[in-house]
Every structure is written in C-alpha cells, then in structure tokens.
Amino acid sequence: MKKIDxxxxxxxxxxxxxxxxxxxxxxxxxxxxxSTVPAKGAGTFTxxxxxxxxxxxxxxxxxxxxxxxAVVLNSGVANACTGQEGxxxxxxxxxxxxxAMEIPTEAVYTASTGVIGKQLPIGVIxxxxxxxxxxxxxxxxxxxxxxxxxxxTDTYAKECAVxxxxxxxxxxxxxxxxxxxxxxxxxxxxxxxxTTDLAISKELLQxxxxxxxxxxxxxxxxxxxxxxxxxxxxxxxxxxxxxEITEKNADYEKFCEALSLxTTDLAKKMAxxxxxxxxxxxxxxxxxxxxxxxxxxxxxxxxxxxxxxxxFGNDANWGRILCAMGYSGVNFDPxxxxxxxxxxxxxxxxxxxxxxxxxxxxxxxxxxxGKEVKATADMKVGIYEATAWxxxxxxxxxxxxxDYRS
Amino acid sequence: MKKIDxxxxxxxxxxxxxxxxxxxxxxxxxxxxxSTVPAKGAGTFTxxxxxxxxxxxxxxxxxxxxxxxAVVLNSGVANACTGQEGxxxxxxxxxxxxxAMEIPTEAVYTASTGVIGKQLPIGVIxxxxxxxxxxxxxxxxxxxxxxxxxxxTDTYAKECAVxxxxxxxxxxxxxxxxxxxxxxxxxxxxxxxxTTDLAISKELLQxxxxxxxxxxxxxxxxxxxxxxxxxxxxxxxxxxxxxEITEKNADYEKFCEALSLxTTDLAKKMAxxxxxxxxxxxxxxxxxxxxxxxxxxxxxxxxxxxxxxxxFGNDANWGRILCAMGYSGVNFDPxxxxxxxxxxxxxxxxxxxxxxxxxxxxxxxxxxxGKEVKATADMKVGIYEATAWxxxxxxxxxxxxxDYRS
Lengths: 406, 406
Fold this sequence. Notes:
2 copies of one chain form a homodimer. With about 400 residues, chain A is of the alpha+beta class. In chain A, a hairpin with a 2-residue loop joins strand 11 and strand 12. Chain A has 11 helices and 15 strands. In chain A, strands 1, 2, 3, 4, 5, 6, 7, 8 and 9 form a 9-stranded mixed sheet that branches. At the A-B interface, helix 8, helix 9, strand 13 and helix 11 of A face helix 8, helix 9, strand 13 and helix 11 of B.
C-alpha cells in the first residue's frame, strides 16, 4: 500500500477536465470525470431534509443504474431549493454530458456546489460541457484541473491517491474533494469523487463506501452546518484486471484500507482548509465505554465554537473542552478524565482526573501555536476510541460568511 | 399586569448589594440578594454532566431546605472542574454569608461565573461577603449594583420587574440575569435570580419556574455551548400579603404570566447582548405539526453559524435558513415552506413554497440592518408555534473568545 501522485485520474482508464464555463466570475467552475469503460457506481449523500437537485438525481442513479461512466460537477450554484426548474436543469446537465460522450443519461452522476436558491445558468452549463469534452485527458494534470474547478471558498485543491497489489495486479484508488464551509457531513461529504480501476461488485463497493464515511468524512466538521449537497461518489471500472471481488475476503480488506487512506487524507485536508481556518484541530477520545460515546464526545469537542476560538487564540482554555464533553449527552464521570494537547512542539498533560495539572501556560501556548494541533481525552473506562477533525474559528470565518454572496 | 422599574429588589422585603471584592482586575465581582424574612426557594440548573460546585450545592438546597433567605454570587471564577477543593470553597462562601446574616448555611444559594478550572480565592470571597453586608440596602439602586456585579463579558446589566394584583394586594416580581458567552441554556440559564413577594407553596413555585424556562431561557442561544454553571433561582417571601397559592387557580396563572414577562425580557436581553452581538435575532416557526418540531426548527436556525454570519452581514442568504431547518432532524416538505424577514424597516416575504420570491435584495438588506431582526418560517401544516432568540456571529465574538482568559 503506497501513496502515489494524483487524484481522480490516478486509476487506469479515468480521464478528467476542469474548465471556466462562466458560472462564477473568474475561477474554474466545471469539472468532468470520465471512465473510458462502464464502471460500477456507489454513493453516500446528505441526510439533510432539504436535498439539492443533483443529490436527488444521484440517489436515483445509484439505486437504478447498472453502471455509470461520468461525473459532471459545477461550482458557483448549488441547485438547491430550486423546485421543479432545478430538477429539469439538473437533468439537462446530465443529458448534455450523455450526448457529448455518447453514453446513457442514467450513467451520468451530477454534483453542484455554491449558493443555495439560485437556478443553474443552463445555457452556460451546456456550453461548458462541450468545453469539458474538448479538454478531457488522461494523466495527473487533468485530475488536478478537475479538483481545482470544484473549489468554492477552498484555498487549495484536495487530491489523494494510493496503489496496492491484488493477484499480482496493481490497483489504484484516487480521489478529489472540496469543502470549506457548511461542512458537517452526515453520511456523506460536501463533494467528493473517488475512482478506482479495481474490479468489485456494486453491492460491496457501496458497502465499503458506506462503512468508510462513518470514520472519515462524517468525523469532520467546520461549522456544524450539514449541507444540502453533500455527496461522495465512487466509480470502479475494473481495468486493473483483478478477479472481481464479490465477497469480504482479504482483497476486500485491502481495498477498504486503500479507500480509508484516500478518504481520511481528503477529509483532513477539508478540515484543515475550513473557511478561515489557521490550523487543523484533531480530537481523539480514548478508553471510552462504547464506540458511539467516543464518536459523540470527539464531535462535541470539535464543533464547540468556544473550543474553536480558544484554539485560534492559542489559549489552553481546557475548561471549554470538558464543558463540551459535558453537554454532549454522554454519561461520564468528569472527575475521571485526563486531557492532553500535542503538536510538533511536544505533548502536555493539562488535566488529570478532571482538574488542572500544574502545566506551564507558556508551553501550552507554544504547542497550540502549531499548524496541526491535537487534543486527547482519556476517559479511562473502556476500550473504544474515535478521532474527529476540525479547525479553529477565526475572524476570517466570519468575514467569508458575512458576505459570501457579494 | 404592568412593567415597573427595578430588578431583584422590586419586590417587598428584598435587599441587595454589588461590590468589588478583588476576584477580577477592576470591575465589581460579588453580589448578594437577601430577603428580610425566610422565602420559598426554587431553581432550575444546567443539564451539563460537568456541574460547577455551586450548581451541585444549589440542587441540594432546592431539594432539602425548607426555606432560603440569601443568594451570594461571584463573577470572574466559575468554580467548575475544581474537585473537592471547589466544593469546600463553595461551602465556605455559603457559610460566610450565613455567619454574616445570622441565618442557616442551608438557606444560602450560591452562584459563580467566569473561567472554568480555577479555584475561588476564598479569602477574597470571605472579605467580600463582609463588604456586601455593609452595602446591603433596599431600593432599586442596590438591585442594579447586584446585576452589574455578576457581569462577565456582558456589556450591560440585565434587569426586569412587573407588578400585578391578587386579593387587592400588589404583587411584585423582579429579576436579574447575566449571559454573554457559553449560552445555550438547557433547563436553566447562565445566572438568573428572580424575587417575588408573592405567597406561594414551594411545589408550585418550582413547577411555575420549570415550565417557564422551557419557553424563555431555554429558547435562547448565543453559541450552542451549554454552560457548566447555568442556574435560575427564584425566591418568594410572601410579604405581599395574599393568601398563599396552593393550587393552579387563576392567581397562579397571573403569577405565571408575570414570571413569563420578566424572564422573557431577561432572556431577550441576554440574546441581544451575546458576545460580540450587533443585533437581536428572533426566529418564529409557525403552523408546525407539533410543539416539539416548532421548538427544534427555531433552535436549529438560531444556532447555525452560517445563518448568524449572514445576519451579521445583513445578507438575505435564506438558503442557509432552509438548510438549517433541513438538518434539524424534523421531517417536513421543503417545497411547502414560506419565509419572511421583519424589522422596524418592514416585512418581506423571501421564500414561497421553498423557492425565492422576486424580492428586492436592497429592501432585504435594509430590513436586516435593524437592531432587532425577526425571521418567520411558516410550515403551513399545523397549529403549533415557537419563538427562539439569538444573535449574529461577528468578528468580536471571535476576538472575545480567542483571548478570554488573558
């Protein structure tokens, strides 16, 4: 299992493009990921009652289509809260790709991200699809252009890829994602596309993805706002030449491990690049009574505005961490909790049995000043643990979101 | 039923004081509320698993003491996460008041607010109690000094009082509260003290208070962080001379109405004065299927960071409101929702049946620029409604909380 360069075009038979179509003012705003052969498709989607048109479409494609071959994505407009007209525009976007690539409309996944409540400029989108077809290429570079085209307030493109061996065949798994704001995925992520040349049954592909998100994208939060557009899509085209995986054997486990490497990397990048973030904030809860409790506690800490502002201010205000654990709904004894902080500058025990140690504030501030800061809460009661990823809450988060539409 | 001047000293037989004892650097930091005769006491408290020492003490007093006569409060140090030493210090604080006023220790409520994890400077507290005794007075002015002394990052003191008639006797109900940050009360509020000269049984006093907070303090949120110290206390000393209320009759209803006027006023002031807030943001959900759903939807909107930053930016980004409703957990049809905004500058329908009306952005911005902004979501399915109060999320919230301890 090794990390390799690239993203959605790292696996055999995948092409991509990213172009400026004219939805946004200046930056690239449309992307296409295409498999040269039909691929198995699977997806996980937002649990928000308000679902964007592309989400409703993709849920149908995932359920009903035997195979998929393309994913078309746009940034700038979310196509959410757009009624019947929004559904029609989404279908027209899928049809434009189907016509251009000569594949069935039901083999096209769609994804949109941007402002809620605005209609897609469908003429611009249809022109954009032609531009995408003209630019469609294999190779790492084209995948990066696609990753760039789905950015909104992201400050850098998010890609990751790994490779491993099955049956003496090299298998590649690569992906891209965008995040930044309205990030609190619930059974999905903002927008993510993963491709692989693995041969695997559609059922196991879906199961691997659904299990995977619980510990990766669903464990990150930027602002506790679960989006209307969260979608994580995966395409597996089988070009690696391995025997198709149809049961949960050792090969399946290898694939799950590879998938986890890719999605954890993308999820952490999404958290670190949260709107206005100055650092990645990782929270690990260990020795909890149950897995569920470890997850709930770590997410409660990672989403607390008061904890996040303290992290921004490099202030070891650990009382806020205990406070956030206390209102999480988990039943525990506060007088039994130990708390540590950690970064490249060292590790420090702040709390022992619910009370402050005689730690040095100066050392604590130094540790918290790192670009990647970790807090660990030791519950000292069980064997379960969980890790969540988030970021600090800065002036820039407020600035970005006070005038996002202008 | 009429509003009158004053707060905790508006009712007959209540005295108060607020002094600088030396816990904080400069500002007043200790308060005392005292009834000249024994009073019935009731309280509601934080549901946070991590409970401050005074909260644990007050729960015991509420349960076991036949009467109470004093409330001593300090700001600057929360006495939370302070272990056995914290419990001892809290007891010493209550004893200091008991000794000074010559009343039983079990008749003294305590309340602390400030930094979590630091021990109370008990010598300073004990000296402070003597200063408080020396300053203890009747009259509106002394109540205001007490309200000032419990402030932390609050920018103004919060008081309210009303009077009404029972049996030809004038009944007064007055209160004070402090809020600002770590405000997301759950079965209680940050710190609030209400006094009344009504004669009422202890059981009904508690029931009136518990029912009251559900629709007042529990409906506000500044930052979705439920504090370790939330306490709302009420003292009823019976000096108004009415026949003691022992059943839920018309007089009981009158008292509930008066209590609601006082606590709603204090709750709204707390929301409007949230840390860094530039405006009060009120959210009403109407025609919901159930009371519970109306409450959940309104609180989901009021606590969304993305909605709050949009309100700060005077940006009618209504998609974020529908998004926050969508992830609240309530099952509803987004295509059936209407949305309005309102302030002194007028009312505007932004959304009809889940989609944008052709409203003017300019008018929307003007309305959102008010000091008190209201959003109304009409679910158009039932008869239930709920109102929640919050505030916008500004640069100053981040500033205040990034260096709260320094």
